[in-house]
Design brief:
The chain is mainly α. Helices cover 68% and strands 0% of the residues. The protein is built from 46 helices and two strands. Strands 1-2 form a two-stranded parallel sheet. α33 links the parallel β1 (760-761) and β2 (780-781). α4 (61-77) runs antiparallel to α26, α30 packs antiparallel against α31 and α37 runs antiparallel to α38. It is elongated and about 175 Å long.
Length: 1049
Amino acid sequence: WNDDEMEKSRCMKTSPAEIGVFGAARLRSPFRTEFMLGLIGKQLSFANKSTVIKYYTLENSSNRETQSTELLKMLSAFSVRPSKSRLYVFHYILIEILTAVKDVFQDFEMDSILALVKDPSELSRSNLDRIRCAGVGVTNEFFEMYWCNLLFPLMTSLQLAWNNDIWSQEYADHCSLASIYLGLLRLDLLTPDAPLDPGKAPLAKVSLISRELAEIKSVLTAMCWQNGFIRGDFAPETSGTTALIDRFETLSTKRENYKNKVVERPDSAPPFYELFRETKEFGSTVSSMATMLEMVDKVRGTEDDHGNLLARVKNWHRTATAFCRRLSMNFFAYEDITTSIIDSVRMIQDGFFDLTKQASVGRVFDKAIPGVIFQLNRFPMSEDSESIKYLNSVARMLTEKESTTEDESSFECLSSLSIAILGRLLLKLTVVGLEDEELVTCSLLFARLTNLTSPLNSEDNCRTNLEEIQEKTFREQFPDHRHEFEHVLQETKGEFDRKDPDKREDTSGTVLKERILTDPQIRLLYRLYMGIFSDHRSSPADPLRQIAFHTSYVAACHIQQNFDLANAHGRMREPMGGHAFALCLASIPKSAMSKVYPHLCETTTLTDFQNDACPSVAIEAAEPLERLMARTTQLLTAFPGHTILLGLGRICEKVNKLNLMTTPIGKVMTGIEIILRQAQDWEQHASERVKLGAPLADLGILLSAWRKLELESWSKLIEARQKRRVLKAQKHWMRLHGILVNDVMQYVDSTSDKPTCPDLAVTPSWVWKGFAAIRQRLAGQLDDIRTEELKDLVKALDTFILTSPLGEFQERLDILRACSVELYIAFKVSCGKSTWKLQQSRVLLSIWMYYNQYLPTLSKRLDSLRAPVEEKLKNETKLAKWDTQSYYALAESTERNQRKIMKILSEFDESLDLNVGILIQEGNCSGLRTNLNSHDEFCVTFPSFSSMFPMTGTESEVSGKQSTTDVVFRESLNDLTNVNEDVINAPIDGHARRISKYAHKMKSCRPKIGFSSQSSVRVGGDISSSFCQAIFDRIESLRTKSTRQTKER
């Protein structure tokens, strides 16, 4: 394990009061889920602080591969069926107690009770009356004391638990009650009744037996002496002496057995009466039978004041934990007594902990946690409609919790869970489609995230100096990784030992105080939004399925980390297939130059060598670095404290601990360059026997190969620069979405009699004059128009588009189009109730349609600006070279090449930053003004017809001498008469059934109609054609015969 993983386990988010609350066995807890979520979940997380968890490093990469293989084998072969083994433990303990009672009282009336307890199946088949009758017949002192309060409720709970499903709430409740009753019974029986040490009780027997042995010995000696003086035989074998000898041997054996039963206490052991006083006071006051049974009744009841009750239970937990800790620490010499007492208290604590978790009304979300994690971890994701509804209900509960507490952990769980639901909805939309209610859910989730997220921080524009801005831009593209490694060399050994050399890179991953989504989350959320509401969806199902599970697993990880899973003991199902799939997603991609988690990226191959992580390439340095570290350690034993070797070891350790999943490949390459420079200082003065040898040569070969990869990636830097502008435009989406979708979408249930959504329109009143019935049938009047608000919206959106840089123009248009679709869906599902959303949707659609006509021209303009830059970049790539004579020459040549590349990229950045509004205005003013800034000068040269009306020339060429109206009329007539009868289904309507008959009649009339018929189509076409021709003729006459002032007008 890594040190940070061990530190994470020591810093678990558990309150001190709950650490010692219960002592349940780990077999009853969802240990496998907790382990896999802690191991894999943070690696798959999108948060900035995920860089702190270094799952894959060069140092542990081979071990991680082995671990992943073994875990995958284990998970694929793992199968656990739910078991009621906990009830068997209760039965075993109860059998031992009742058997001991029967032996003490010699009460054979207990056989019926023992038969029920010894056979769980018999107990499960019995009813409460049978259990009551079996206990009433027993009249010994033990049953009179415990039957009504403990034994009968205990056996009742066991009987009900056996007859309930293991995943049910009732099973968990009855197991908790059985644990409490059995713990109380054991505690009352095991508490000492006298201030005498039970471990010293055999000593009294030893003393009595020793006294009796002394008497037998004296009698036997007297008999031997008497027989010797009388008969001369001092060892007589009479019946009397033989009986005494046998009695002596028997008692000697007994004495040895009792001696073995004596518990030897150390001299430092406290007096036993102190332990007696502690246990007696605890059992008679805090944990008396009456007090505990009262707490059980209140927890199971319907008391209104749950807060005080839970506080009382928690205080008892603290007292019981302190009592057990005191027994363990102060009375460890009496562990034969305290162990069983502590175990009994733990059984009571365990039962109360589970029982209060289930009975707590105010912790509904905690009760839902096991089901949430089960749904999120399950793969394949079957019954997705029901699971989406369930997860969405939990997200609503989290929203209420987050709005009242404003806790950062709640926001983290809410954001990750919402993204997981959206990922599943996008997958379902791609495979089978979404219902109206699910579309509403999508919109509500997006609105919930944009409303809960803090406003985006504005970028730091305080640098007004051009050189500083250029230097910052250069360092964003080519970070100075050398400075960080050089700083490691300058540190003293003490500083290096006290601080992890790689912790400095994780300062950017500190936990944010604001409720704000991270950049990866925003990019993923934007991709989900465009996938759901965009018109063009071309993503295949497999990457979307991976995204849906990836986001679900991350949500499960966040929920598991921020909420307690202790209430899931014995009830939480653990699907192993999901963990196996997550393990595969978290592994290093095997294809060369592949990005991390390619299903989350639009482009799967590496485009930016200096800023993108590529673990499949970086892992190649693991083996030579390991051999170099071993050789360096070997040389340090011969040259202890050598400065060059110590620096080499530090740099190797620094590179070894880099996180492969987040560290750019350029940074790893820079670290290897520093290693080669440090090794070069050693090699030039070392003899052949103490040189570093083959590992250094292997690193040199690897570095050369990586230089070639970097050279090949330079041609893709233009794509990376353009991608930066796209990502920058995507950040505007959250702000725009928060402005537009500011009220809750209303949904009319499909099961109710909802009216069809009318087609509303804004039209002049004279259009429908005399045709009110037709208007009512075709379109409704949109009356509640918010003119002023629409004007403000149009101004804001128009500014949003016109101020866009050229590199962001298409992405901003896509945002407008997707928002328009979402607003129109909101109007449709509300059945026309939310007309304001229709107005917003049409405004967005109108602006998109207007500016979308400029997209081909501007895209062509950007391509024309990009082509010479690409040519320069290719030429520079051919000419670039590195001076490998020394490290310093290499660093200088690298800096020089990067500066040249950045100079070329800056030209393309200028093209990407061109203002769209100015470009559109330039295109509109072409032919009307000499330039954009000349407001008083007008162009007197009028453009030709072909430039002003390009489609007119095209139509004239196609139609020849025939008018456009003739062509339109001919095409419309062909459409009416040429009916394909094969594609007509069997219609229900009577008129539609005779379509074929009408088509034959129209074909027969076609020769008679001709093109000279004065139909309405022909008349309208002629009138419009003559009308337009008159306008064009008038313009032509003004061009040629008017004065200069008229031309200017």
